Every structure is written in structure tokens, then in C-alpha cells.
Amino acid sequence: MIRHLRFGALAAVAAVAAPLFTTQAAELRMIGGFPENFVFTTEIAHPFMKRVEEESGGALTVSLQGPDAVPTFEQFEPVQAGVFDLLFTHPAYHAGVSALGLSIDAIDPDPAKRRDAGVIAFIDDHYRQHNLKLIAAPATGSEGFRYFMKAPIEGTPAMQGLKIRGTVSYHPMIEALGGTPVVMSGGEVYSALQKGVIDGAAWGLTGAKDFKWYEVADYMADPTFGQVGVMIFMNLESWEALSAEEQAMLTRVGREIETASVERFDLLAKEETAALLDLGMKMTAFAPEEAERFDALWADGVWSVSTAKSDAATELRALAQEAGLTP
């Protein structure tokens, strides 16, 4: 059973066989890729932290630090090394190390279907090679993304000559629509829109309001497309230092978060769209001939990036296709 997981924890972790949780509280240190008040943090990371403490009777707690402690794109390695025990992130943020996780955004978000098909187990096996254990892969709604634009969509290709924020998984789609992708974290987008560094941003259906993009971008574009899959990982040595009961508890909590996430974020997306319209944003739309290609452009683009960088992604796509979970 785990005793203490803190900075430099790997050398100090001790496992003690016991049937029940210890009465001595132990802390798991988590680094997160999103600000403290951001919707992914408040609706996924915080509930996860609360449930771990509840389910362990207070024997395990989780503390959270965000991008202010370690920049979003630099968080993977410190968790690999055991500086932190847990990582809450989107897999695009570590695509340079492993691109397999990107594939989750092209796979049906239903958590039960993903697990029954072996998708989550496959991804977990892959990340174990990087010294990480996949605890949960919550999807933030049944639909994932849209484009937020400074000016309305006009003509085809709609993004010709425009610079559009997007992590690596968006790049093929942005380029197919005539745009130039620009990589930056969500927290950098406001300033980039304000200064004209970018003309728009690809992002999920929740979060733009938290970032106040309505102050610097006037339009939300239809149609929506794809899905967003964030992930909670654990350093493998930290995981193996847990008792069987603690491992089972974390697995159970991870599945609870996955199950609750889709319905919760679908509701939040509707509320956020209404709120952004109330704050003055307007709707714009891609031409029908481009709009009808969106889902295929997105899925094919995600798979092209992940399979180009990871042989395992080709196997994962075949597994997901066999289960009818991806094109």
C-alpha cells in the first residue's frame, strides 16, 4: 500500500501488503495541462480528485498543479520520471513523444464501447512502454470541436490564406480547408487573436467562454466535428506501488469519470453556445460542400498524423474499425 507520493517520490515509495486502505494519508501529485478554472479541470480533474479521496476514505488525496508550474507541452516527461504521480492532459500535447493517444479523437466517444472493444486496454499497453499507466480517457461530449473565427466564413476553400490555431491533430484538416495551422496552447490564443497573429482557433465546444475569446473573436462556425478525448495517466512505478485495492479503486473512479463525462459535456456545450451568443458572438457556417466532408476530414487527418508517427496506431485503427468505432 502506498505511503507517500511526493516530489522525487520514486526512490521513497514503499508498498505494504494490507487488505484495507491505510489510515495514514498519502498524497498523489498531479500536473494538469489546463488552468485551474478551466472547464476540463473543474469538470474532470476536480471530480476525479474528490472521488479518489471519498473512495479511499481520505487515505489517498490528489493535489493539482497546472501550466504555471510546468508548461503544458512539457508535462509528459516529468510524470515519466516520477516528479509527478499523475498527468491530466490532451494527448496532442505530447505527440512528439507518442502520437498514439491522438487516435482517441477519431474513435467513438462511448466509454463502454471503447473498453469492450479493447481500445482503452490497447492504449494503456502502449503507454506502459513510456512508463505510464492510463487511468481514464474521458470524452468531453458526443461531439468535440468547432472553429472560432475573427471574421465570418466566406467562399471555398474557407480558410484560404488564414492562420488557424490547432494542435498537430488538426493540421491535416486545416490544411485541407486552405489554412495554415499554428501550434499554441489554449492559454495563448486570446493574445494571438487580439494581435492578429492568428485568424481563428480550432477548439472544443467548451472552454472558449472561460478563455474570454468572445472579446477577440466574433464568430463560432458550424458544423461541429470530431470528439475530444483527454486522459489521466499515472507514473508506472507509482501505480505499481499501490495495493491491489488502491489500484482497483483508481480504475473504478476512472471509469466513473468516463461514463459521466459525455452527458455532462453535452449539456455544458449547449449552455456555452447560448452564453457566447448572449455575449455577442455570432454564428457562421462553412459551405455545404466543405461541411459534408468535415467528419471524414477530421478522422482521416487524425489517423494520418497518428499512424505516420506510430506503427501501433495502425493496429489501433484496425481494432476500432472492426468494432465500428471509426471510419
Rg on CA atoms, Å: 20 Å
Helix run count: 11
User: What is the share of helical residues?
Assistant: 25-40%
Q: State the assembly state of the protein chains.
A: single chain
Largest sheet descriptor = 6 strands, mixed
Straight-line N-to-C gap: 43 Å
* Overall 3D form: globular
SSE string, helices as H and strands as E: EHEHEHHEEEHEHEEEHHEHHH
Mean of all residue-level pLDDT scores? 92
Q: In order across it, which strands form the biggest sheet?
A: 7-6-8-5-9-11
Relative strand content:
15-25%
User: Low-confidence stretches at least 5 residues in length (pLDDT < 50)?
Assistant: 1-20
Strand runs, count: 11
What structural class results from the helix and strand content? alpha/beta
Structural description of this entry:
The protein has 327 residues and is an alpha/beta fold. It contains eleven helices and eleven strands. It has helices at 39-55, 76-80, 111-116, 119-128, 171-176, 186-195, 236-240, 244-278, 288-291, 294-309, 311-322, and strands at residues 26-32, 60-65, 86-89, 132-136, 145-149, 163-165, 180-182, 200-204, 219-222, 231-235, 282-285. The chain has a six-stranded mixed β-sheet. Helix 5 (171-176) links the parallel strand 6 (163-165) and strand 7 (180-182). It is globular, with a radius of gyration of 20 Å. The model is unreliable at 1-20 (pLDDT under 50).
In short:
With 327 residues, the protein is of the alpha/beta class. The chain has helices spanning 39-55, 76-80, 111-116, 119-128, 171-176, 186-195, 236-240, 244-278, 288-291, 294-309, 311-322; strands spanning 26-32, 60-65, 86-89, 132-136, 145-149, 163-165, 180-182, 200-204, 219-222, 231-235, 282-285.
